[in-house]
Amino acid sequence: MNDAMLSAEGIHQYYGGSHILRDVSVSASPGRITVLLGRNGVGKTSLLKSLMGLVPIRSGTVRLAGEDISRATPYQRARAGIGYVPQGREIFARLTVEENLRMGLASKPGGTPVPTHLYELFPVLQQMLRRRGGDLSGGQQQQLAIARALASSPRLLILDEPTEGIQPSIIKDIGRVIRRLADEGLDGHPVAILLCEQYYDFAAELADEFLVLERGSVIARGDRAAMQQPEIRGLVAI
Ligand SMILES: Nc1ncnc2c1ncn2[C@@H]1O[C@H](COP(=O)(O)OP(=O)(O)OP(=O)(O)O)[C@@H](O)[C@H]1O
Ligand SMILES: [Mg+2]
Fold first, then answer.
1. 49: containing domain
2. Which atom of ligand 1 is nearest to the CA of 42?
3. pTM for the whole structure
4. Considering the domain boundaries, does residue 178 fall inside one?
């Protein structure tokens, strides 16, 4: 556990009186992909938002590289090295691709350029720099959302259902980029990846470790080999 980039323990979270997350612990290590599985409405997004500071937790601890960030704002967490790709992408439809990428640099000093290695990961974005975000296909928007999160060179990348509503060829491209980030790092430093998914085959191909949420509790976790067991597929397959 000492080498974890992210280490969250005993997370409880509520929306009003509804107890959404119940004693959830999750960690993510440099160079590894941790997959968060679970059916609709079990609390996956709530957990990722809690880690990013977008919703408050009632109790528990979130640590990044050993530092307690449980009470930090989303902006402070971005500065500390978390890149967040929200469910549904949330790119700015009226801004150009280049302007969207610059938004990803908000936690960096003014004048920091968009890192050119992003175009190596996503060549399609370079061809479309002047196009409006809203005019891209769903898959291209997802690639843009990932590139925007990578612009600040995060040490932890959190992705919320990046395959949702996306055509298979782009899903493959996105999977390759995620694997490459884990294997090669970014900007000369390693990256830990936490990926939330409902698409089992995509998740199983990428997972170094996994955990399964059901009604806000972790009901299974394990390594890559354990994920291939039919019981795990049965827990998440729709
Ligand atoms: N802002 C909110 N206010 C009140 N309840 C909410 C809010 N956001 C989510 N919920 C509820 O919390 C529970 C968990 O939702 P969450 O979005 O975390 O699930 P999820 O696993 O990400 O689902 P999906 O697979 O559909 O994205 C659900 O019952 C949902 O209705
Ligand atoms: Mg969700």
1. 6-88+154-233
2. 21
3. 0.95
4. yes
